[in-house]
Write a structure and sequence with these properties.
The complex is a heterotrimer. By secondary structure, chain A is an alpha/beta fold. Chain A has nine helices and ten strands. In chain A, β9 (196-201) and β10 (204-210) form a beta hairpin. The longest helix of chain A has 13 residues, at 130-142. Chain C has two domains: 11-74, Orthogonal Bundle (Arc Repressor Mutant, subunit A); 78-121. The chains are: A alpha/beta, B mainly alpha, C mainly alpha. Chain A binds chain B through residues 14-15, 48, 51-55, 70-71, 73-74, 76, 78, 80, 82-86, 88, 93, 97, 100-102, and chain B through 1, 4, 7-8, 11-12, 15, 72, 76-80, 82-87, 185, 253-255, 257.
Amino acid sequence: MNALLHIQNVTKKYGKKEVLKDVSIDVSSGKIVGLLGPNGSGKSTLIKLINGLIEPNNGMITIKGNALGNESKKIMAYLPERTYLNNWMKVKDILSFFSDFYSDFDRNRAEEMLKQLNINKNDKLKTMSKGTKEKVQLILVMSRKADLYILDEPIGGVDPATRDYILKTIIKNYSTESSILIATHLIQEIENICDEVIFLAYGEVVLQGSVDEIREEKGKSIDALFREVFVC
Amino acid sequence: MLGKLLKYEIKATAMTFLVMYVAILALAISNMIFNQVKFNSGIVITLGILVFSFIALGIVTIIMAVQRFNKNLLGDEGYLMFTLPVSSSQIIISKLLVTIIWVFASCIIAFLTFIILYNTYSDGHELAQLITEIKDNWNELNTQLISELHMSVYSFMAWIGSGVLLGLTEFILMIYTALTIAQLPPFSKHRGLCAFGIYVGIDVVLNNVIMTALIAIVGINQLDPKLIMIGGCGFAAVSSVILFICTNFILSKHLNLE
Amino acid sequence: MAWEFNNNEPIYRQLLDQLKLRIISGVIGTGSKLDSVRDLAQDAGVNPNTMQRALAELEREELVFSQRTSGRFVTEDKELIQRLRNEYAHEKVRELTTSLLQLGYTRKELIELINGFLEEVS
């Protein structure tokens, strides 16, 4: 099966500690998938693995059937939790940067979104607040026509209006050829836009399935189920 | 893709260097003007600051080499750089090349400063005269070099140039290797200190221990200037390759972004 | 008309119900063209696949039909819409009367209550 993202029996250790244990996940095209799990569940490690920033101790990850490498990076768009912008560029410079390195970058779309969020192209990244930088990063990622989008906590720490804008943009970006993987702990807000959710706990996949099926079966929201599963 | 990396690396560093270059040239020219109007304290001050500026330029170049690597690759910006569709070797080469380019540019600025100062301070002995003198002695220099080293002035200069270039490359790659080793889990809590320590360690091992061993193996009596020159270049080249491979390996397999 | 969701139930069925409501109340007029799946999904804040499922079900129930190149349209079948409207009203009345009768209201009190409310509203 040529799933868009295929993670097979992946294990990752840091020293003696097993951060991910025999994780297998398949994401096919045209899906919005929520990757849910508390801190320490291995979510960020898994995301680093998918992005090729680190390598697994065991198992393999393929994108469209191919091993991770430059070719897969061309069709992946990653929004990390952190701010990865430098402080010497202006907004328009980072737009040029993305245009230069990614052939699927839609500059016009990015400029349109900047306008909608009242961000000036000529502003220096250095002078922006953290929130504005996060918006710029989101715009950069969503302006790419990638096959796999990986968003790490895209709506954490933003005001409700921006959150709605972000969720609507995610839906707008949807296409049958691409998929979006959203890692978050704000489950209530993203439940409705996900096709499927994956629960990750202590480095293992605890639950995986379609949102509607889970709601039907368990008779409760994913958020409520999550709180049950991960009782503090 | 390497070209694009070079473009942005130069853009990121240009301001710092260009400002210093302009300041240096301005100082040299001011010095020249002060000499013509006999403003003595001005002459001394500009000369003093000029000397200081070149020292500062050297320090700034080293700091930039460290900063650009550390901040852009091993900090949060690494999340962007290492998810670009480029290989880590391309990233390393782009930073190495740009640092070398700035050192080269700095040399040109130093040369220009020299010409301005020479013009200012050699009453009567103009630049044109100097050039003629060099040309006259060229052939004599050539003959001497050929008899002692079996090479012309041109190949001599080429070997010296290569030696300097390779030595610079080795120096920069040593910095990169130390930084990448220092970001590995056992050291990452005290990156700065460890990087410095590792740098010193690599320097001692490569340039002192191994080189001494090689010299001992070859035998101190066998050393002639030509062998030293070629051997030095070769050693720097091999060291550079080893350091590059280490850095590239760690960045592609053991990147520890936090 | 705003979209309201209960996260404890499958979205698909809720979408189906709310789309039907929009049609029978005339918010989406008879014979009118529906927005694209993506626009509807954006408006409702839901996954496009789920919206697509709901629309496909509406097609099966013949409330909407799709024209290959032009998109999806609400049926012109006024009788069908009227019937659904009646069913909806019937269900609402049933709910209301059942719960109030259970509370102990008599038929007379019930009718007085409704009339009183209607007067207030006008």
